[in-house]
Specification:
Elements (H helix, E strand, L loop, with lengths): L7 H4 L9 H9 L2 H14 L6 H31 L2
Length: 84
């Protein structure tokens, strides 16, 4: 038998361990730290009104990311139209 025989199951993610698509999106955005700050604040205070600074920071981060993404898409669109 090979030494690898039993370890393969450790490499397979279980269904409940898969990362949530929303978490993946937030991670790719670069705004995960501010998102986690909102989650921590909500867990501590259980009142979104007390977490407005964290919510605003997350909102600002996501808005900046969305603007960067939109600009990138516009550049690609312009480049593809000029190469035709």
């Amino acid at each position: 038998m090979s030494a690898q025989g039993h370890t393969w199951s450790q490499q397979v993610k279980k269904e409940d361990e898969e990362e949530d698509p929303l978490d993946q999106l937030i991670s790719r955005s670069g705004c995960a730290a501010s998102h986690y700050a909102v989650q921590e604040c909500m867990a501590q205070h259980q009142d979104w009104r007390q977490c407005q600074p964290q919510v605003q920071a997350f909102r600002d981060c996501m808005s900046e990311q969305q603007a960067r993404r939109w600009e990138e898409l516009q550049r690609r669109k312009e480049q593809s139209s000029t190469h035709r």
